[in-house]
Amino acid sequence: MELEVRHLRALCAIADAGSLHKAARTLGMSQPSLTTQLRRIENSLGAELFSRRRTGCRPTPLGQSLLARARPLVDGMTELITETRAEAARTLGEGPSLRIGSTASRVVAGWLRRLRLRLPDTGTSLHVDVSANALLRMVACGTLDVAFVHEVEGCPLRVPPGLDIRVLLDREPQFVSLPLDHPAAAASVVDLADLAADRWMVDPSVDGERDGLRRVLTAAGLDPPLLHGDYLTASSLIVIGEAVAPCQPTSGPRDDMAIRPLRDDPLGVRLFLAARPGLAELPLLYADLEAAYRDAALRAAGYREWLERAGSPLVGA
After folding, report:
1. Inter-residue contact 176 to 251 (CB < 8 Å)
2. Please, which residues bridge with residue 147 across strands?
3. Other beta carbons less than 10 A from residue 302's beta carbon
4. What is the mean pLDDT of residues 139-151?
5. pLDDT interval class at 198 (50, 70, 90)
6. Neighbours of 51 (CB within 10 A)
7. Integer Rg of the chain from CA
8. Closest Cα partner for 5 from 60, 64, 81, 63?
9. b/e map of 12-33 (b: 16 or more CB within 10 Å)?
10. Which of 40, 84, 160, 302 is 20 to 30 A removed from 249 (C-alpha atoms)?
11. Around 235, how many Cα atoms within 13 Å sit in the side-chain half-sphere?
């Protein structure tokens, strides 16, 4: 077996994600397939590249040495493909384009609509990923022009050097979604202690989310069981009373579940744009994102009430 760029890309993804499960999701493949591929790579080299533990995968000394050489090759190939495609588009006389990335957010639809109206001759593509770190790497290597991401409080992202960063919100509070018939749903603000007997659900592939939630629960003296899964599954479990979950304050309203702020706002994220250096459209992108966020925030009744209590300039704007 000869090593190819796709094999090196898989090794980099495993190292960045820290687990085969998260890396497989980033690469768009199943975990068994990635595990088999890693085993074949290690067999061809005659040594282990990662140590497998219950807490995840960590590069061995040999793995670290290989990764140090592999990353420039992977980034170089990505840059080569990106630049070649851009040159081909120019040759064919295509118009300007913007390649946008984002973690999941209710703000994105309004943002893209504003951009389409403002820049009707510019083609816009969208790449949504659960991993903010993966999106930041794509901006750094030229696959994306800009990415809108969230950074879980206490779990800093790995921001590549040289990116142009524009902070949308230093701290956005995270609300909680819970069943309509949950006793805590009767209040306008929920105490963490009122959820001590519930199972919490988080998506472990979202950078920092599991660790950030665990940090907050531990600080509150709570140790509830955590379920791991995507938020489509979480919604289904919440509706039938089997779980609660953190959620964005712009979520809702929904007829089948309650969305409430947490007392003292223990969970928070930082929202920011990361752009490739020299992106001329960045001021327009930021202005339209800010306007789209304001619209989404004021449409969510619970978040609007929170903003009014906090005296946020978003309400006055």
Report:
1. no
2. 101, 274
3. 19
4. 93
5. very high
6. 11
7. 21
8. 81
9. bbbbbbbbbbbbbbbbeeeeee
10. 160
11. 9
**DSSP structure class, residue 155:** S
Write down the residue that tokens 């109206």 correspond to. 117
Percent of the chain with pLDDT over 90: 60
In three-state secondary structure terms, 169 is strand
Cα gap 260→266, rounded to integer Å:
13
The one-character DSSP state at 160 is P
Give the CB-side neighbour count of residue 292, counting CA atoms within 13 A: 21
**Token pair recorded at residue 20:** 């085969």
Q: How far apart are CA 220 and CA 236, in angstroms?
A: 27
Beta strands at 123-128 and 245-247: parallel, antiparallel or unpaired: unpaired
Q: Please determine, for residue 310, whether its predicted confidence score (pLDDT) is greater than 90.
A: no
Encode pLDDT of 248-263 as tens digits: 999 877 889 999 999 9
Query: In terms of C-beta distances under 8 Å and separation of at least 24 residues, what long-range contacts does 92-96 make, across chains too?
Result: 94/123, 95/121, 95/122, 95/123, 96/121, 96/122, 96/123
- The closest of 311, 208, 202, 190 to 262, measured between CA atoms, is 190
pTM: 0.75
**What are the pLDDT digits (tens) for 153-162?**
999 999 999 9
Structure tokens at 106: 């209710």
Give the whole-number percent of the chain exceeding pLDDT 70. Answer: 95
